[in-house]
Fold this sequence. Notes:
By secondary structure, this protein is of the alpha/beta class. The protein is built from 18 helices and eleven strands. It has three domains: 64 residues, no CATH class; 278 residues, NAD(P)-binding Rossmann-like Domain (Rossmann fold), CATH 3.40.50.720; 109 residues, no CATH class. Strands 3-2-1-6-7-9-8 form a seven-stranded mixed β-sheet, sandwiched between helices. A two-stranded antiparallel sheet has the order 4-5. The protein has a two-stranded antiparallel sheet with strand order 10-11. The longest helix is centred in the first third of the chain and has 20 residues. The chain is elongated. The N terminus is likely disordered.
Amino acid sequence: MTSRGGAASTSAYSSSSSTSGDGSNSLALSYLSLFGCGVAIGVSASRILLLRQRQLSARRASKRRGEQAPSRDEDEEEEEEECRRRRTSSQALSSASSKTLYATDDIVREHFTRNVQFFGQLGQEHIADAFVVVVGLGGVGSHCASMLLRSGVRKLRVVDFDQVSLSSLNRHAVATREDVGKPKAEVLRKHFAKIFPEAEIEACNAMCEKKNEEMVLGEWKKNETENTTEGDENVAPSYVVDCIDNCDTKVDLLEACARRKIPVVSSGGAGSKCDPTRLKLCDISNANFDPLMRAIKYNLRKKYGISHGVDCLVSVEKQVRELVTEVDLKEGETLRDYQVVPNFRVRTIPVLGTVPAMFGCALASFVLCKLSKTVELSPDEGNDVDTKIVAYQTQLDRLKDREESRGLGKCALDVDINDIAYLIKDVWQRRDARALAKSGDDLATTPWKALNNLEFCRWDVTKPSSIDNLVLFERNECDEWEEGGEHAIQRAFLKEPE
């Protein structure tokens, strides 16, 4: 039946073209032809919508003929008015269930048809009904928030105190040069209204600190037009995504989420990294490869007694670029003198813009799967020890034996197998520290079996066996090192490695 309809419409267009010279009739019949052919091949609602948009644009153009071209501000106002119209028309649907929205709004249904195919109708409804908070809207946070919105999350709270800078355009998800100097949260809200007008975006232009905890993590306040039932006036966050790059602020946010029992996933550092194969999702107890997350782990445990139960995304890649100081210090000045915000970094981190985007998309994927309740995740725990775990465990056992032989006991250790793996692989690179100093950092010539002759000992015997105080030497030299002090240091580095 559809093929006959398509053929009929095509022949009707052909005959009209040959017999009629009326351009308007030809145009009308061409639309009928397109529609008939579309039915024949199962055209999607999005294409019909595109046709409607083109017709609307044509009417606007004809209306403006002979008039002065509208300014950019007028165009923006018209676009915002269209977004407001979409939001207003769907307000009643937004207050109802997501099931009703998908059933009654053709555009929304077509927008998320691929999501429904992946998560199922129920899973997509769970995503649509969620309320997600994204804190930190730089390269990682903006991409995460953008993909959450594009995937159907209808309640988003985006939080950042900062403004868009020109140098951040290499990694921001939606910002343009016109947005430079504007609050990041407001920029996202403006762009998001054009992507998914039916969504509700709450932009918080504020720093995430304890005095603003309720603003950041508080319940979503339903507006007057939304239908509410007793006991369901407000909605607590379904998930929090931590994309902050400041240690103290990050620690306080994670503690607040744990105290409020809000699920949270935290991003490690994306700067100075480039390898897309090294991203790992893991519990914070295993996040020892990323310098930022190691600091978070230490401070969470020290300040709040939290040592596990926080999901993290980290890169296990060693940093390939150093921090850059763009401030020329004068005599008597320190970097602290140039801090815009106390305790925030002054030095800049070299960033390959694609890496924060990958972080953000990975975080969004993780949260979406959790929200859907239809996709089970089984992430690699991020230990990065796999087939080498025996070698790492052997080195850890040797260190424990050494500490016990010195009368300190196992409790003196402040490292675990993940720390040992990091030290061996990325710091000492499977070699005696003297050999590393002499021959550079070419790993290709160093077999794993070389570890059999090596052992960890303390660099400074007066300090704990922590990740920043362990050095890898040949086994027969460790005792001499710990007993000989500075003289042993001189002898060790004067002696040629075998």
